[in-house]
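Input record (Table S2, row 305):
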Amino acid sequence: MKAAANLNGGSGDARFQQIVHRLLGDLFKAIDDLDITPDEVRAGVNYLNKLGQDGEAALLAAGLGLGLGLGLGLEKYLDIRMDAADKAVGLEGGTPRTIEGPLYVAGAPLRESVSRIDLNADADAGPLVIHGTVTGLDGKPLAGAVVECWHANSKGFYSHFDPTGAQDDFNLRGAVRTGADGKYEFRTLMPVGYGCPPQGSTQRLLDGLGRHGNRPAHVHFFVTSGDHRKLTTQFNIEGDPLIWDDFAYATREELIPSVTEKTGGAALGLKADAYKDIEFNLTLTPLVQGKDNQIVHRPRASATA
Ligand code: DHB
Ligand code: FE
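Output record (3,4-dihydroxybenzoic acid complex):
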C-alpha cells in the first residue's frame, strides 16, 4: 500500500501521497472486513468507468460520497465541515451555505440590479420574481455585489445540460450587480425539482441502494462582493413534497423562503399579471485572515451568451 501511494518514495507530491495512501488503506480494510470478492471489485471498477463515460462523477458526489454510512452525501459533508470551521472562528450570522451541485454554467450576461432570465417559453411554468438585498453582517446593503442564480425549467431540466435540447445556453441563468441599495431581482419562471437521468450511472447505483435520485424544486446562488467571502447557496420552493427528502441533502431550515401571490406582473413584463414572489435576502460574511476560505476550485461548464 505504501508502495502504491509511493509514500516516502522521495519524489511526487507528499500531500497527494498521504491522501492516496489513506484512501487505499481504508479501501483494503473494507475489502477485508466485508470479504469483498474479486467480482465485486471488478463490478466497482467497471462502474467507475461507466460513471465517467456518462459524465456523472460530480452528480454522484452529491448523492452518495464518503458519508454514505451516515446517510449523508459527500458535498453536504464538506459543507458541514465548513460550517464547523466557521463556528470555530466565531463566524456566524451569514446566509447558510449549501451545495453547488454539478449544473452551474459560467458566463451569464451581467446586468444592473434586475435581469429577466426566462429566454425560452415554457407553457407549464408560471412567472416568478426572486428578489432581495445583499448585506454584510452589519446589515448594511452591499453595492457592487454580483448575484448569480440558476435553476431548472418545468421539466426539471437545466439549460446547457437539457437532454431534450429545448433551452438556450443561459435560459434560467442570470447575473446581476447590485447598486447602492444592495438590491437584486430576477424575473423568471417557477422551477420543478431535478431528477437524476433515469438510465445514468448515478441512478443505477441509487437503485441498488433502494434510494430515489430526486431533488425538490430549488434555485441556486453564487454571491460575490469584493471584501466578503463568496456565498454558495440555494433556496427550496416552499411546499415541495421532497423538501426533506432531497437525494443531495441540500435542504436547510433557513433556506425555505415564503412564496407569496402577487399581481402587477404585466407591468414588469411577465407573461401573466398574477405571479409568485419570493424574497430571499443574502448576508455575506467577511474574509478570514484576509482570505476567502470558501472558494472551491472545480471544473465548471462555461458558455458565451
Ligand atoms: C445535484 C444538485 C443539483 O442542484 C441538481 O439540480 C442536480 C443534482 C447534485 O448535487 O447531484
Ligand atoms: Fe440544482
